[in-house]
Amino acid sequence: MRQRGFTLLEVLIVVIIIGILAAIALPQYTATIEKSRSAEAATNVGSIRTALDRYWYQNGAITTTISNLDIDDPNSVVNKLYTYSITDDGTTATTRAYTVTATRTSGGNTYTVSWKQTNNTTGKLLRSANLGGPTS
Q1: Is 2 a domain residue?
Q2: Taking residues 107-119, what's their average pLDDT?
Q3: Which domain holds residue 78?
């Protein structure tokens, strides 16, 4: 009577193949997760940008403190993924110029999502290269 089952060599080959596939798939999975997390940052950056524009229309200036805006401060969220900041790039009473930046550091990598407003009609959403976006 013949025994049925797998030999040790066959099991080892299957384990090696699974290990190779996992080594290939894991970095792609991590990159996909970070890209999906950046959607939260893009939404919050958009909210901050809209509130900044409203603030500028009302006051003729830009604030660099998110708590001065009429929105919930995303930096006050307990389990936040990103840290948000505002930089005034030379705003005047007639022209808006600012940058809203969301920054996340994880696993030795830094991920950024930002909105750069260069004048009253031109602005651009930028993502760091490791999120697959244009950086300029």
Answers
A1: no
A2: 92
A3: 8-131
